Amino acid sequence: MTGPRDTLPVALTCGEPAGVGPEIAVRAWESLRARLPFVWIGDPAHLPRGTPVREVETPEEAMTHAGQALPVLPHPFPEAAIPGRPAPANAAAVIEVIARAVKLVADGRAAAVCTAPISKQALKEGAGFAHPGHTEYLAHLAGVNRVVMMLACPDLRVVPVTIHEPLAAVPGLLTPQLLSDTIRITHAALIRDFGIEGPRLAVSGLNPHAGEGGTMGREEIEVIAPVIAALRAEGLALTGPLPGDTMFHPAARARYDAAICMYHDQALIPIKTIDFAGGVNVTLGLPFVRTSPDHGTAFDIAGQGTADPTSLIAALRMAADMAAARAVG
Known about the structure:
Elements (H helix, E strand, L loop, with lengths): L3 H4 L2 E4 L7 H12 L5 E5 L10 E3 L6 H4 L4 E5 L16 H16 L5 E4 L4 H8 L6 H9 L5 E6 L2 E5 L9 H4 L2 H17 L7 E5 L14 H15 L3 E6 L7 H4 L4 E4 L2 H11 L5 E5 L5 E4 L16 H19 L1
Parallel strand pairs: 1-2, 1-5, 2-4, 3-4, 5-12, 7-10, 8-9, 8-10
Antiparallel strand pairs: 6-7, 6-11, 11-12
Helix pairs in contact: 4-5, 8-9
């Protein structure tokens, strides 16, 4: 059976052109070529000098030309890209490229969106970007109220319920509704986007030893356990609340398909320890597939040709696989 992976390319946004995005896009193309065609959306002048480029008018043309050159859907930017020094005048175009990629997928012209890293500070200063980050902007474009961030590698998938929040604020933010919504969105995405029938989810506690019967905190008793019980009654395969310090060794990971964690570091420390270079950021709950490398703009090494493309390559592969899973489903 053919699907988006066979007939449509992944749309890769340029991200912040003063960061490592352009150079890792080229290195990803060098690795993947026709095996996984993608189309890069951005200003061709921002790519490293000497890059074999084929400017295309439609994303579909990438399927023909990816073996010989990097397919580029040109998007003009007002200024040159100076590594490590984002230009405020380019901020609006960075945002436009993201919206353009989303529209291409919505119109059935591309299989999925893969986003190169942006600088939220640069976008705010240069274009008044009103969203906390990529994910929130994508949700806005899709008209979706709640999305979920997953970090994934071959050996682990983790989902933080609260994300970029001070640790002191987490207990107050951890509501039954937020936890329930996060679990439901994750469960549905594992079926639709990863082709997993009957997903198994492990749910962490918030406190050490998962609260140890209330002696180290009552969030497990008052919030987490009741949500787990209610969703189990609906047929979801859930375990927990589990102590966070015993959830991530190999035998434990074999018992679940994704781990639901209560806060940022509880989720990201284990996956970055297991696969620092190959982790992929996935946005669940969107009407289209979106992945991203799990790193930032890396202004300090931009333009030096030393940036590691491993995470971007993994993100492109995962985007194509997820799009194919959706097509089959």
